[in-house]
Write a structure and sequence with these properties.
Length: about 80
C-alpha cells in the first residue's frame, strides 16, 4: 500500500458529486463522509485492503482495477 496524497475536502466533494451512487445522499450525509483522514491509496496486486476480523471502519472507493472479497476458510 502506498499513500499517494491526502485529499482536500473540496476534491472529495467533487468526487462524490460525480458518482451516481451518491445522488440520493443529502448534503449533510456527503459532508459526513468527508473526513480529515481521507487519502488516495494505491494497492499493488495481491495486497489486502482490509482483512477479516479487523475492527477498523474504512470506506473504500475503487477508482480503477478490481477487488475480490474472500472469506477465510471458504473454497
Amino acid at each position: 500500500m502506498k499513500v499517494l496524497t491526502s485529499l482536500e475536502p473540496s476534491d472529495i466533494q467533487v468526487c462524490l458529486e460525480c458518482l451516481p451512487f451518491f445522488d440520493a445522499f443529502t448534503a449533510e450525509e456527503k459532508q459526513f463522509l468527508i473526513g480529515d483522514d481521507t487519502h488516495l491509496i494505491r494497492f499493488e496486486n495481491g495486497e489486502f485492503l482490509i482483512q477479516e476480523g479487523e475492527s477498523d471502519r474504512p470506506l473504500f472507493f475503487l477508482l480503477s482495477g478490481s477487488a475480490s472479497v474472500v472469506k477465510q476458510g471458504a473454497s
